[in-house]
Amino acid sequence: MDCQEEQLVNTICDLYEKISKLESLKPSEDVNILFSQLVSTCIPPNPNIDVTKMCDTVQETRQKLIKICGEAEGHLEHHFSSILTSFEDNPLHHLNLFPYYNNYIKLGKLEYDLLTQNLNGLVPRNVAFIGSGPLPLTSIVLASSHLKETVFHNFDIDPSANSLASLLVSSDPDISQRMFFHTVDIMNVTESLKSFDVVFLAALVGMNKEDKVRVIEHLQKHMAPGAVLMLRSAHGPRAFLYPIVEPCDLQGFEVLSIYHPTDDVINSVVISKKLPVVSNGSVVGGPSCLLMPCNCSKIHAIMNKKKKMMIEELEASREEQFS
């Protein structure tokens, strides 16, 4: 690292020390200030920073910081979902009260464009979102603005999160009929996963590499061949906030494209497709780790079996009953 990059990492580590000393991570003036400083420090794109190659001390701090960020994000979503559900009219009309709502609008448009590009215009009938939380904004944005006939099944292990989320959409005559919530550990969901055309995996489901890969392996085992897996990742300093998903983690999937935003959308997006399974239980092909060095304003696409790389400019691009 050069001096500027070292200073950036030191700033992030100093903020971690301050955040770790907070009595609570629930929304408050101190919490809001420190996390705003953390995000503003991490968000400027810097592809030269590779957190996976940093020293063990920094790696340990990063893992702790991701966990803290996940906990704080959960508190923030619970807080605002509770506020939104208190409105007597349709709570979805007040989503702009959530401070990061515009980010979700941008992320939803980005993910929809990536889906459209890689599904050749086909519209998914059934979508699963794993780790939807108390404020399932990705599902809501996609259902209301982009996939207006698609059914969304949201999975979360926290019953209080699903209770708030269900209440949030219950007053909307359209969304409430196309959005369902399931309180379950996704590792216990098997056959049902075959019914989904697209599966979204939230960034904070699997906060370390081992847990993330374990979930991906489970999805690969039970998703339908040809179904799309959309994952959230992180790049550069943003990887201090969220876990990284690499192509090598996606055994049994074909990586279609990876997009690293350069604006205030923090998460990178990885879109992949489950490969067909042959008779002996193995899969045809597999992920390639031969990605080009990151250029944050481009999509990096791995084209089918030829493993050719091309860079394209991205334009600003069976319902089932559950018991």
TrEMBL record:
List the top taxonomic levels of the source. Eukaryota, Viridiplantae, Streptophyta, Embryophyta, Tracheophyta
Q: What class of enzyme is it?
A: transferase
Question: Organism, per UniProt?
Answer: Brassica napus
Question: Per its record, what are the GO molecular function terms?
Answer: nicotianamine synthase activity
Outline what the protein does: Synthesizes nicotianamine, a polyamine which serves as a sensor for the physiological iron status within the plant, and/or might be involved in the transport of iron.
Record protein name field: Nicotianamine synthase
Stored InterPro entries: Nicotian_synth (IPR004298), SAM-dependent_MTases_sf (IPR029063)
According to UniProt, the reaction catalysed is: 3 S-adenosyl-L-methionine = nicotianamine + 3 S-methyl-5'-thioadenosine + 3 H(+)
Protein family membership: Belongs to the nicotianamine synthase (NAS)-like family.
UniProt entry keywords in alphabetical sequence: S-adenosyl-L-methionine, Transferase
This enzyme's EC code(s): 2.5.1.43
Q: One Pfam family, please name it.
A: NAS
Any GO BP annotation:
pollen tube growth
